């Protein structure tokens, strides 16, 4: 299963036709909302928002979920850390040195789901926005920094190129691994340390390939007379439309739920669910 994080899938969906500046701003606000919310109603609002966005993008639910692949280990690791190393709350299971509490279970589920929402929401930005539009939108949003002579265009270009390099380097890593497996290399047996050492021979060909791709990209940009953002014109002018207005209004509903969550208005829902899951306290 190949990861789709950082890739662009062409299309004519609602999300594809939205202004990239609005998509970037909404993505940033969405990330902030994911980190701020802590109640079930807040998570439900964010889930409804991202599921609606996936449906409107027409890229497929499975395509978005494949973006989780590169960070799946981090999600599992943080879940385990919060599950087994959280000593607060009532004990649910105790065996030898292992002690699992209700607070640890809730925190583990909360953080893993938060990371899932974070990755899927941000992946939609790259899946529905091509590199040119993403660069133009970042440059427009960062334009006020030109007053202090900040290289806005160069920064936007580097950020988008780095983002697009993620799937390219992952595909190159997979290709090198398959080539070395065909020559007898073993990446799957043994302990974690042995498998980590087996990955070291991948680094040199991967770095060589990355520098080769970067050199080819630089030559292609020079062949097209690219010399930075000074004096450049754009084929498409970014304009806000009705779709952007509707998207902003939809996110205002989510923002209202997050604000109510921060005010403690949804605490009763968490307490009710906690009582249903752990009715007897410690086991």
Can you walk through the features of this model?
Strand 1 (91-95) and strand 2 form a beta hairpin. The protein is built from twelve helices and two strands, in the order H-H-H-H-H-E-E-H-H-H-H-H-H-H. The chain has 283 residues and is mostly helical. It has a two-stranded antiparallel ribbon with strand order 1-2. The chain is 66% helix and 3% strand. The chain has helices at 14-17, 20-36, 40-57, 61-65, 72-84, 102-127, 131-141, 152-182, 192-198, 200-223, 242-262, 267-277, and strands spanning 91-95, 98-101.
Please estimate the helix content: 55-70%
The residue ranges in which pLDDT falls below 50 over 5 or more consecutive positions are none
Count of helices?
12
Backbone structural class: mainly alpha
Percent of residues in β-strands:
under 5%
Q: Kindly, what is the distance between the CA atoms of the first and last residues, rounded to a whole number of angstroms?
A: 40 Å
Strand order of the largest sheet: 1-2
Please state the CA-atom Rg, rounded to the nearest Å.
Answer: 23 Å
Query: H/E series, N to C?
Result: HHHHHEEHHHHHHH
The total count of strands amounts to 2
Largest sheet geometry: 2 strands, antiparallel
Question: What shape does the CA trace take?
Answer: flat
Instruction: Give the mean pLDDT.
Output: 79
What labels describe this entry?
283 residues, mainly alpha, two-stranded antiparallel sheet, 12 helices, 2 strands
SSE blueprint and pairings:
Layout: H1 14-17, H2 20-36, H3 40-57, H4 61-65, H5 72-84, E1 91-95, E2 98-101, H6 102-127, H7 131-141, H8 152-182, H9 192-198, H10 200-223, H11 242-262, H12 267-277
Antiparallel strand pairs: 1-2
